Amino acid sequence: MRKIFCALSALLCLSACAGTPGKVFTSDTPTQTEYVSARVVSNPVQCVPYAREKSGIQIMGDAHTWWDRAAPKYDRGHTPRPGAVLVLAKTGKMKHGHVAVVKDVLGPRHINVTHSNWGNDKYSRRVIYDSMRVEDISPRNDWSSVKFWNPDKNVFGFPYAARGFIYPSPYANAKNDLIY
Hints:
The protein has a single domain, classed as endopeptidase domain like (from Nostoc punctiforme) (endopeptidase fold (from Nostoc punctiforme), Alpha-Beta Complex), CATH 3.90.1720.10. It is α+β, with helices and mostly antiparallel strands. The radius of gyration is 21 Å and the shape is globular. The protein contains 4 helices and 8 strands. Strands 3-4-5-6-7-8 form a 6-stranded antiparallel barrel.
């Protein structure tokens, strides 16, 4: 009887750990709070002024122009560092490009960024993402192609072409130091 009870207990424990059919739960399965933290603000905040404020990088103009405009004053590269600005190329849907500030480097292919104005409707444009996971999907691990976490679908979203990272300089916080 004791052997039957132990066997049934073990089966019940295993079935309880199985989770929802069709969904795999592993230690690598993210929870929503691990991959995104956001807040809604009353007025939309564009990504460029938000990135400028958070990084101290003083560049003006559309987000996609930041990569070329940074060259004379800021170091650029393809390695994420906290405080660096990730520059996305413009696309048909993202006509002005996009910029996001690196919060944390989690590994060779994962970072957390903070950014704003990431979405395609009035509501999502008023969300500031204090932390959102970004994954490098480039074949050479050079951050030239990335995916951002999609909190609505709980997966990484569409791929975006990235130009690279702009690194803040010690002089980047001077108010009269804007690059036009």
